[in-house]
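#lab-general

N.A. 3:47 PM
ok so I finally got the sequence cleaned up, no stray characters, all 140 residues accounted for. can someone with queue access submit it? mine expired

B.Y. 3:52 PM
send it over

N.A. 3:53 PM
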Amino acid sequence: NRFIGIKSRGCYETPGGTILRAAHIDLEGLVLDREVRAYRDEHITPVFGKMMYNGLYFSPEGDLLTKMVPLTQTNVNGSVRVKLYKGSLTMEGRWSETETLYDMEQSSMDVQGDFEPIDSDGFIKIQSIRLKKWGAKFQN
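B.Y. 4:20 PM
back already:
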């Protein structure tokens, strides 16, 4: 059901684009902030796809969205190794020399840093409020 209400058939095959998109999404998992990625995927990507499908690239909303997408990509760089075999795509590895959200020193509980386990107590209590309320429904 097209934008103007007429049914049509179409074949959209872009194997190269499919491979590049899958690799890019995998790389984003390494270098893109979780909340930025979630916001982009929930609010920008669906609207951008609909706008493109309906041919509204050169429109006020198209101008806005095409300016928003690059803001989510400023830290996305690196390499992804992919394996193609019999029509399937497997990510074999990914890395970035300049961007990464993972830091072994910050993540380690063995390395002495600014983190004190007691600091987690308040966070856990606050997070558990809604879970306790939800779980109480099943107690009776």
